[in-house]
Amino acid sequence: MSETKRTGVIRDINGPIVTVELPGVRSGEQVKIGDLGLFGEVISLRGQLAIVQTYESTDGVRPGEPAQGLGWPLSVELGPGLMGGIFDGVQRPLEKIALQSGDYIRRGISVPALDRAREWEFEPNRELSPGAKVGPGSVLGTVQETTTVLHRIMVPPGVEGELLEMAPAGEYDIESTIARVRDPRGISHRLSMYQRWPVRKPRPYLRRDDGISPLITGQRVIDTFFPQLKGGKGAVPGPFGAGKTVVQQQIARWSNADIVIYVGCGERGNELVDVLESFPELDDPYTGRKLMERTLLVANTSNMPVVAREASVYVGITMAEYYRDMGYDVVMLADSTSRWAEALREVSGRLGQMPVEEGYPAYLASRLAAVYERAGRVETYGAGSGSVTLIGAVSPPGGDFSEPVTSHTKDIIETFWALSKELADARHYPSIDWVTSFSKHVQTAAQWWHKEIDPDWEKRRTAALALLARDAELSRIVNLVGPEALSDAQRWELEGASLIKEGVLQQSALDEIDTFCSPQKQYALLDLAITIYKRGAALIKLGVPVSELQHLPLMAKMRRIKSMYSSEQLDQVLAFRADVDHAMESVRIEYAKHGEQA
Amino acid sequence: MSIKEYRTAIEARGGLLVVKDTAGIAFGDRVQIKDHAGNTRNGQVIRSADNEVLILVFEGTDDLDLENTWVRFLDEPVEIALSPEILGREFNGLGVPRDGRPPVLSNIRRPVGGSAINPAARTYPREFIQTGISTIDGLNSLVRGQKLPIFSGSGLPHNRLAAQIGRQAKLVDQESSFSVVFAAMGVSYADAKFFRDEFASSGVLRNVVMFINLADDPPVERLTLPRTALTAAEYLAYDLDRHVLVILTDMTNYAEALREVATAKGDVPARKGYPGYLYSDLAEIYERCGRIHNRHGSITMMPVVSMPSDDITHPIPDLTGYITEGQIVLSRELHNQGIYPPVHISPSLSRLMKDGIGKDDTREDHPRVAGQIYALYARAQETRNLASIIGADELSERDRRYLTFADAFDERFVGQGESEDRSIEATLNLAWELMSMFPRDMLTRVKETDLAKYYQGTD
């Protein structure tokens, strides 16, 4: 795209949609609107007229004011200084904006994402010397961005050739030249520590790989029952109040990813602040450092302009891809993709485009698929394997999963954590419904669990799910005729399912001990619940009445043990296993004696 | 730019007026319209093209003709004048007094549209507000800066509940009460009078600003009323350092007015004829509440949403629920049993409760007590369903205990007097009294230490 700036004039203002007469402007090009200099993006062209969607409120803008094409599409700055930051939907740094414009966001304010004044300790790659061949993704050197994130400074895509010179170790700001590269045509490129990338274009990689290891989130219902892989794509649909945001925040807090990018897309301001205030205080369970050091927030709250909401998801995923290119495992959480889809709908409605389902434009499904497709595990150009895991919250109107956004998303994703209103109402959290949720990654995850934790993982998981399915079946009978109609064996099945639900599936994000559960402890709890059920079932076969078992103290302990001992106190959890054996054995002996006497 | 006057209206329909041959009119600007009888109406530019503008007329377009309509573009946004004198007053949606007293004179004028709070400037709300209502304080606690709507239905006592909260809300151990901004859209004369009398009789009227649009006032004015009210709330909170409680009633009427105008404009409908931007529009209103760094005041919001045919999945309650931090749901069933306030705890929720309660804020057992009550009540509801099929006599002794609990809970915990102001301590003690109907080993959500300290059962 040429760098010449074109100027034109505003013809029509219809909320965020502005028509400008701007000959020669390109579709997708950034445009500065009016005397205030509001930023926008060309979404369609008709003759001399360009339709521009603006990222800010157009109040006070008049027809006849100037407009200027900037010559480039919506792009983000990529370089050291992103981590720990909070940006708006078009990557403006909100903390710096607060310093400049106070508590409210002033329109037309323009602050670059990366701090120009800050200097970073650059450590050149010792393996490269002048004359070396470098290409996109070649690591020129590193910067310790935060204590946990080593930022690899890479040759940007599109630059290839011979390294002419490289800066020695030292402190540089992001605009200083740190290397020069001469391409095969003899053109010399000056490289600094940051690069720009258009957000709507996926960043390139060498090739795509399959996911191999599960993303451990420390949440039992996810890791044990519906596992996600690093590089996978998943959705968390649920009606309001079912706990979508808590599930997303728990993943952001506890997952074993290197980088977490949290995109608050059209959601509540107060919830973003919760993340903003709590993450700098919370420890990363894997590195022991503060969580904020590996986290980056993109915030477009529901009252911020709708067009920037549409952009925010692309801005987030582009930054995710950039860290992936450094060889990191990145998790991006988008809360919520429904708001993003609604932003599409709002803009398309203003343009008078023909709606298809519930007012959504016909391109909804293809746009959704294209966003999710940017997730994946890849072989990067210069830093080995990296991945982007994309988890999108979906907010179906009225909790109806057949609505367009949920149903299209369901076709695309691999892991579906369906939240249930009924479970949430009973304060069963996380309210991930084991009947409607699914994961296409169980087989792959099983290999990891069998190797790292226990070869019986899949068997135990299947047994638990079977018990839960039985529970659903039997509950229907109970609801019709009451529990008295069930046999002791059937009532024990209900009891077993309840142990799984209360002792394993339920996990309180607010409980200091239970909020995170290591895979070892997850398996130990699952194993305990299944063992209690199986031992009990054997006793019932021998004729032990179910009431005898229901009142064993170990039943209450099984429901509570998850929050009695932390993941570090695994031995205590395992020790309970012996107590279970002992208690069950005493019941058996007691009963055998009783039988003899009779 | 100077003020321009036009007599070139070419179209008037459904609250919208089209004026042609205009030049350089700013989007969003305020408009004054003089009709054939010489009466003045107010409007706002909602689309501005080269030579034509579309105006939203707040008083509606009834009785306008095209020849004798003068349109003046005032070259300023829609604003409201603010001073401490607004307390104790009553205005319409444009800030014009309704109480027969003179207009507020002040050089502080603020555009009612507001702008978005920078998320980086917000502070997380965490100060517990005691409303004196057990189902809210104990199970769905409200904190300062939260937006917690009341989902109700026609004929349910949401207004009485809102007024009671307005009267009783305070921080624990503090006497300072809230200033109340009361915004009524499309309410009946009787409802407006109820609130006025209620505030007057409890002596808080001096601390209340009322913005009222009655059911027979122009619906278009409802679109600007909550914005005007919130601009006043922001002034009270951030200029005068007050803690403000905003009561918006009824948001359903607001959304219907929005639909009316959207239809007239020809906007593409999304669900049930509501425009696709209903969510963003509601968010612009709701998200103006909160707490800001280094500011003493705060804005807490309780919108009332009456659910058409008691349907919580209707677009208005649905989208509201996605923006607000929880909801208090009223139940017709409880109301019919004579229980006040008829709060149905199962679908009710407060998202910001977790950081406002517990050891340093209310009492250390509070979070677990809430969890335990919810678990018991959920099980009790199942048992009630079962009992309605097979009869209570067929239930096991254990299940019958749940029934007794549920009945006692509805009557004593949910039910309370309209002037009964329960302390959080009293609410939690009452919860323990009810929980103690169960043996210790059935209370798995509380800690052993809680049981040792508060359990009152014989088991």
Automatic annotation (TrEMBL), chain A:
Annotated ranges, domain ATPase F1/V1/A1 complex alpha/beta subunit N-terminal: 12-70
Keyword Membrane set for record: yes
Swiss-Prot/TrEMBL GO biological process terms: proton motive force-driven plasma membrane ATP synthesis
Entry's transmembrane regions: none
GO molecular function, one term: proton-transporting ATPase activity, rotational mechanism
Pfam family, any one: ATP-synt_VA_C
One Gene Ontology cellular component: proton-transporting ATP synthase complex
Binding positions for ATP per the UniProt entry: 238-245
Keyword Ligase: no
Domain ATPsynthase alpha/beta subunit barrel-sandwich: 111-200
Residue ranges occupied by any ATPase F1/V1/A1 complex alpha/beta subunit nucleotide-binding domain in the UniProt entry: 218-439
NCBIfam families, per the entry: PRK04192.1
This protein's name: V-type ATP synthase alpha chain
Natural source organism: Thiocapsa roseopersicina
Lineage: Bacteria, Pseudomonadati, Pseudomonadota, Gammaproteobacteria, Chromatiales
Automatic annotation (TrEMBL), chain B:
GO MF term list: ATP binding; proton-transporting ATP synthase activity, rotational mechanism
InterPro entries: ATP-synt_VA_C, ATPase_a/bsu_AS, ATPase_F1/V1/A1_a/bsu_N, ATPase_F1/V1/A1_a/bsu_nucl-bd, P-loop_NTPase, V-ATPase_su_B/beta
Keyword field contains Iron: no
Domain ATPase F1/V1/A1 complex alpha/beta subunit N-terminal, first and last residues per copy: 14-74
Domain ATP synthase A/B type C-terminal: 355-455
Keywords, alphabetical: ATP synthesis, Hydrogen ion transport, Ion transport, Transport
Domain ATPase F1/V1/A1 complex alpha/beta subunit nucleotide-binding stretches: 132-350
Pfam families in the record: ATP-synt_ab (PF00006), ATP-synt_ab_N (PF02874), ATP-synt_VA_C (PF22919)
Record bears the keyword Transport: yes
Lineage: superkingdom: Bacteria
SUPFAM superfamilies named in the record: C-terminal domain of alpha and beta subunits of F1 ATP synthase, P-loop containing nucleoside triphosphate hydrolases
One GO term of the biological process aspect: proton motive force-driven plasma membrane ATP synthesis
Role: Produces ATP from ADP in the presence of a proton gradient across the membrane. The V-type beta chain is a regulatory subunit.
Family (UniProt): Belongs to the ATPase alpha/beta chains family. T3SS ATPase subfamily.
Protein name: V-type ATP synthase beta chain
